[in-house]
Design goal:
34% of the residues lie in helices and 34% in strands. The chain contains 2 helices and 4 strands. The radius of gyration is 15 Å and the shape is elongated.
Length: 74
């Protein structure tokens, strides 16, 4: 494990590929989740490391509430 600006950076050896992950804290539920190299959240995190990010569970809750609100207006 390597720490970079209070963020845990882990490299996992999977076969011949090395997967880089960052441990990031969710702004809503305060849980720590991993951002895996190659995902959209990873690229967003690499662009802005001091940004605010949410985990997959909170993302799905937000999306569900948005759909409920949209369907309620129809």
């Amino acid at each position: 494990m390597v720490y970079f600006d209070n963020v845990e950076v882990a490299s996992y050896l999977k076969g011949e590929l090395i997967m880089i992950t960052y441990s990031v804290s969710c702004i809503f539920c305060k849980k720590t989740f991993e951002v895996v190299e190659g995902t959209r959240k990873y690229t967003l995190y690499k662009r802005n490391m001091k940004g605010k990010f949410s985990c997959e569970d909170c993302d799905s809750k937000i999306e569900r509430e948005a759909r409920k609100g949209l369907l309620g207006k129809l």
